[in-house]
Amino acid sequence: MKNITLGAVLVLAALWTLGEAIAGGIIADKSSITFVGKQMGAPVEGRFTRFDADIVFTPVKLAQSHARVSIDLGSIDLASDESESEIKGKSWFNVAAFPKAVFESTAFRALGGDRFEVSGRLSIKGITRDLVVPMQFRTVAGVQTAEGSIELHRSDFKVGEGVWADPDSVAEAVQVRFKMALKS
Amino acid sequence: MNQEKYNPTAITLHWLVALLIAIAFSVGHYMADLDLSPWKLKVFAWHKWVGVTIFALVVFRVLWRASHTPPALPAGMSKLMKNLSALAHMAIYLLMLAIPLTGWLHSSAAGVTVVYFNVLTLPDLVGKDKALASLFKEIHESLNWALLGLVILHVAAALKHQLVDKDNLLNRMRW
């Protein structure tokens, strides 16, 4: 009996792993979402360590392609406990109320070569905005990889309210870079 | 008593660096316990700018000192006292270099690049690393307490020369 139960568990685990591997997912350790902001004129880098993406992208079938990226904002890494707890708080991401940032594509456009443009909607902190993200799609070490960067303005999403709205201490513009290694 | 003085450049550097260290130390002590706010970011930036200035001035001071002979110590001083004095001064010079450096290392490890007066971007000395950042913070703070101790010794020794030995040592550092 014990062996049957164990067998069933193993089969389920295998199926579950298989399910994870179906097209659309990303290879987590080869993917990254990083950003650079500025405080008092000095660049400050950070990244998100947990995010999920469902990406189906075929350069010759742009109409059938789609991308949905969901970022766990609580996974922010700023190399400082103090900054991290502050940025998860109400004035910034308000992670308790809005745990995730979500980007959902609406259309893809070929720009020639390996360059594309992804139109979509980005939701952060309950605010949704249209966005056009430039993207490069190529094979890196045998893995199909979509990467690009976009400048966001934190006030568009009320990230940094109250005293933090002052752009002199923390700049408005935040450069976000992404690299998504797609599972084949 | 006709006594040889330090040259005007050395005197100016001494008092300028002393003033800047007093400012950086006080600001640093004040800002360490602040809650995170735009004001704190500003104060931290100012502290770093003063620190970088001190570092540059001290590098210049070391070069100046190495190429200019300081006036001789009072004849009445014992050999032991002269050696202790040289040792204390050496330690102060080392700390004046090590303290800004550990501050810079802390800033790099904490993921904040130092941009001098919002203009000159200094290279990051180490990569982002939380554990390293708090280690450098500890070292930076400890070295500051060590410097405070040495400065107290330095001032006490100068006053002892002036008031007890009455050898008018302070005159060497007057313009």
Short précis:
With 184 residues, chain A is of the alpha+beta class. Chain A is built from two helices and ten strands. Chain A is globular.
Keywords:
heterodimer; A: 184 residues; Lipocalin; 47% strand; B: Fumarate Reductase Cytochrome B subunit; two-stranded antiparallel ribbon
Largest sheet of chain B: 2 strands, antiparallel
- The count of helical stretches of chain A stands at 2
Instruction: Identify the overall geometry of chain A.
Output: globular
Report the β-strand fraction of chain B as a percent range: under 5%
State Rg of chain A: 19 Å
Describe the structure.
The complex is a heterodimer of chains A (184) and B (175). Chain A has a single domain (24-181), classed as Lipid/polyisoprenoid-binding, YceI-like (Lipocalin, Beta Barrel). Chain A has two helices and ten strands, in the order H-E-E-E-E-E-H-E-E-E-E-E. Chain A has helices at 2-21, 81-88, and strands at residues 32-39, 42-48, 51-56, 66-72, 76-77, 100-112, 115-124, 127-140, 143-153, 173-181. Chain A has a ten-stranded antiparallel beta sheet with strand order 3-4-6-7-8-9-10-1-2-5, with no helix packed on it. Chain A is globular, with a radius of gyration of 19 Å. Chain A starts with a helix and ends with a strand. Chain B is an all-alpha fold. Chain B has one domain: Fumarate Reductase Cytochrome B subunit (Up-down Bundle), CATH 1.20.950. Helices cover 69% and strands 2% of the residues of chain B. Chain B is built from four helices and two strands, in the order αααββα. Chain B has helices at residues 8-31, 38-67, 79-109, 130-165, and strands spanning 115-116, 120-121. Chain B has a two-stranded antiparallel ribbon. In chain B, helix 1 (8-31) runs antiparallel to helix 2 (38-67), helix 2 packs antiparallel against helix 3 and helix 3 (79-109) runs antiparallel to helix 4 (130-165). The interface between A and B is medium-sized, with 21 and 22 residues.
